[in-house]
Amino acid sequence: MWSTALLLLFVPLASSTPLQTRKWDDFEVKHAWTDAPHGWKCHGPAPDDHVLDMRIALKQDRFDDLVAALYEVSDPSHQKYGQHLSKQEVDELVAPHPNSVETVDSWLADHGIDLGLVQRKNGGSWLTVPVKVEQASRMLNTTYSIFQHDSTSEYIVRTTSYSLPTILHDHIGVVSPTTYFSTMRSMRTTSFLQPHIKPLDNDIDTAAKLVDPGSLATVPSSCSTTITPACLRALYNSTTYVPKATATNKLGIAGYLEEFANNADLQTFFKKFRTDAVGGTFQTVQVNGGGNDQTDPGVEANLDIQYAEGISFPTPNIYYSTGGSPPFTPDSETPTNTNEPYLDWLNFILAQTTVPQTFTTSYGDDEQTVPIDYATNVCNLFAQLGARGSSILFSSGDDGVGGGSCLTNDGKNTKQFQPNFPASCPFVTTVGGTTRVNPEVAVDFSGGGFSNYFSRPSYQSTAVTTFLTQLGSTNAGLFNTSGRAYPDVAAQGEGFQVVIGGRTESVAGTSCSSPTFAGVVSLLNDFRISQGKSPLGFLNPIIYTTGVQGFNDIVSGSNPGCGTNGFTAGTGWDPVTGLGTPDFGKLQALIG
Ligand SMILES: *[C@@H]1O[C@H](CO)[C@@H](O)[C@H](O)[C@H]1NC(C)=O
Ligand SMILES: *[C@@H]1O[C@H](CO)[C@@H](O)[C@H](O)[C@H]1NC(C)=O
Ligand SMILES: *[C@@H]1O[C@H](CO)[C@@H](O)[C@H](O)[C@H]1NC(C)=O
């Protein structure tokens, strides 16, 4: 008996190399598209020795515990409310199981990868290693190609499907770059210029009319067409609040697409529209080779900084300029970066010991163009940031329930509303758009809908169920009734006066709404911190409960798209304006 058992034990050891090689050959598809995503055409094979920065997300062994901890510290009725986790505590909760590390390391080593070159981030759950196309193709049993985008002509190296050895499916969440095609340039910015709205030269008129700031009745009618910080501060009832916790409290703006926030334009903006803030500055943090060209101001970047700071001044604002890739030339062998903006930014932020208490981001993709494994793993990173005590605001998108033909890309080409990601991630707070004053109504481009990837989180189950009951059969079959619904909240989104290259322009988009809402959240965080309390952190559990009366419910307007009338704003939560727009004074009393 003993000798047989020993023999059995020794057999696998003795022949471990051939066994392992066989094990790594047993492939199962991890993610596949039926076709290359819309807009991308195959240009030719990728050069074998083109170098990719391969990122591998390991399964986070205790991720359920991380989510449980996130909800405990974000639920106002829980005894742990506000007791946010440190970087170390989060890293421990998201660390992969040692078996996952060992298995993945042995797979990498078997492919001749020097484990010394593997960078390990996020408690060891994200690995980055440079790998040649030829090697990556063998590891993932795939063929990389060069794809070119129709409208930008940009080239990227991707594949339409990839596989992993069966045994690795239990250990790996996603490998990239593989099937996520969105690049820096083709990522849709959610802001656009409105040349038909005559820009304001200054704000003397608006300011003068605000005789009794803090009363909605005094919001001047000019705010119906042109928005300035004075309009927003009056409308959202924060005019008289003076921030105090400016040594601790910070507001972060995530910028991409080589968009640079301009210092001189911010000064001009303050001189015109917020004179008490003249001299106020912001810090630019360059992430992953992001630039800071002060001769090239970006519409999105300037909008974000001018309104985030225009509302939160003198709270310190930080603009994160996240680098993408140098343009990839298919014929050269120059290694390129891999265009994974959310990932690089998130991994950079999560590596800091202290993080800003409020973040705003105005970028997104159609959810269906983001592979589900990629979306899930990125969404999980937002959960980590929330557990650390940050409020994360995203604009909801500018296509209502969906732009264009709204056909699915699963090979069936059926018409479906098109949710946006990361707006659809349940761990962020998504901001829709409004317009006009007295009354404030939904703006027709306000992105809203239901995720097909993420199920409805419990914090919104009452609000969304109530909405669905009232909705009845309208739009039935065009959206997923069990999905995470958004937006959560809203703010103005049209006629924003933005200084770009010294000139004032009118700008619209939910890109206006997100920094505006973030500015208000930052003031609430200031108030809490100055009272010796924790920052708000992940907002959704508190705004759908204790905070719900602190919103101006928006009850008219709709968000048409996909050849339909979309959804209609009404009493209570709706997928056009969420819970409504913020009333800082009331929110201060409820959740401050
Ligand atoms: C790899 O993929 C090809 C199809 O591209 C398939 O024919 C082959 O069987 C796969 N190899 C393994 C080991 O699964
Ligand atoms: C609807 O959403 C759920 C998640 O809530 C998902 O599991 C399901 O696949 C989605 N249905 C479709 C048709 O996408
Ligand atoms: C504005 O905030 C104050 C508290 O600062 C509150 O009493 C008042 O009701 C709010 N005004 C409006 C119009 O909501």
UniProtKB/TrEMBL annotation:
Give the active-site positions. E300 (charge relay system), D304 (charge relay system), S511 (charge relay system)
Q: Where in the cell is it found?
A: Secreted, Extracellular space
- What does this protein do, in the record's words? Secreted tripeptidyl-peptidase which degrades proteins at acidic pHs and is involved in virulence.
Residues engaged in binding Ca(2+): D553, I554, G572, D574
Q: List the Pfam families.
A: Peptidase_S8, Pro-kuma_activ
Q: Which residues form the Peptidase S53 domain?
A: 226-592
Specify the signal sequence span: 1-16
State what protein this is by name.
tripeptidyl-peptidase II
